[in-house]
TrEMBL record:
This is Monothiol glutaredoxin-S15. Residues 44-54 have a biased composition (Basic and acidic residues). InterPro entries: Glutaredoxin, GRX_PICOT-like, Monothiol_GRX-rel, Thioredoxin-like_sf. It comes from the Eukaryota. GO terms for molecular function: 2 iron, 2 sulfur cluster binding; metal ion binding. Residues 76-140 form the Glutaredoxin domain.
Length: 169
């Protein structure tokens, strides 16, 4: 009677009890497949001081107000997957590279850190995908700014910001 490798591995792993973990990302094996979970731990043994928190929640502002404030106070604001120095998505990476071509000051928020922020940004812009770029308070788009870059339209929008930045220094 021949056994498949996955059946042998499952039997081998079944002999070892799974340790209880309070890690944010966990991995489990079920009938030969691997599943990942990114749920926040609800382990009662974890002290409140060590549970994940959101800096946005503790600011006292609603997420809608935070998005509105971000867009109003930052000449170039990008909501993206990751951060400008370490994008977590090809589209976000492309958008950041295009914006960096103009040496404009970029402000960013990582939407992967807070799903509620992601939804608040979508509601604010009425746009479903990321990255989302705002220039001087105006929603410009996402990685499709490459077309604006090629046509010269993006240069026009960023000129005043870059020129004002040069005067401040």
């Amino acid at each position: 009677m021949a056994r498949s490798l996955s059946q042998m591995m499952l039997k081998r792993f079944a002999a070892y009890p799974l340790a209880r973990s309070s890690a944010i990302t966990s991995r489990s094996i079920h009938q030969g497949e691997v599943r990942y979970s990114t749920s926040v731990p609800s382990d009662p043994d974890t002290h409140e001081d060590f549970r994940p928190t959101s800096k946005l929640e503790s600011s006292g502002l609603s997420l809608e107000n935070i998005v509105e404030q971000d867009v109003k106070e930052n000449p170039v604001m990008i909501y993206m997957k990751g951060v400008p120095d370490l994008p977590r998505c090809g589209f976000s990476s492309l958008a950041v590279r295009v914006l960096k071509e103009y040496n404009a000051p970029i402000s960013a928020r990582n939407i992967l850190e807070d799903p509620e922020l992601k939804n608040a940004v979508k509601a604010f812009s009425h746009w479903p995908t990321f990255p989302q770029i705002f220039i001087n308070g105006e929603f410009i788009g996402g990685s499709d700014i490459i077309h604006m870059h090629q046509s010269g339209e993006l240069k026009e929008k960023l000129n005043t910001i870059v020129n004002n930045q040069g005067k401040e220094e």
